[in-house]
Amino acid sequence: MNRDLPPLPSRERVGVRGRRERADSPAAAPPTGNVTAPPHPSAARPPSPARGEGNAAATLAQTLKGRARAMRKEPTEAERKLWHLVRGRRFSGFKFRRQLAIGRYIADLVCLERRLIVEADGGQHAESTYDATRDAWLAEQGFRIRRFWNSDVVHKPDEVSDTLWADLTQELPLRPVRSFQPMLEGGQL
Predict the structure, then answer these.
(1) Is residue 154 part of a domain?
(2) 19 pLDDT exceeds 70?
(3) Count of structural domains, the chain
(4) Contacts for 95 with CB less than 8 Å, ≥ 6 apart
(5) CATH number for the domain that contains residue 89
(6) Contact 164, 117 (CB under 8 A)
């Protein structure tokens, strides 16, 4: 008996030679001897991840990477124009990366060399507490954030370009160096 097949409808079964037979026919009498029952149909399916089984959940880094990749494929008009403005080291060799995950946030454009994040914002970002929290965390990491309204990027690209140039050539503040002092036994150095 082939155990890989799903159970048949109510009154049919597969006979010895692989033909379907009605249960009430004389040839369809149950075989005698040591025969095991076919496995349950759900045994062929993989376990459901919805019940906490199966593959492990994606990490935050994997989730952000996927979102950033999707955002690069479908940019807004302002993001597309801003990227066209800075891509290919057009600002005297400064390299920008777009939709880059930093911590638990995704930045529109980033110049890692100058620690500058450039954001193209729509009206939903006006007085946003989320953006304030995000900017504070990014500033703690040593980044400077420059925000442009979408309408400025689209209608005033020369002003955006001049502002970016000023930000890129601005002298960076020195970041304090954290000194590491190992503790000896007894709390003395």
Answers:
(1) yes
(2) no
(3) 1
(4) 89, 111, 112, 113
(5) 3.40.960.10
(6) no
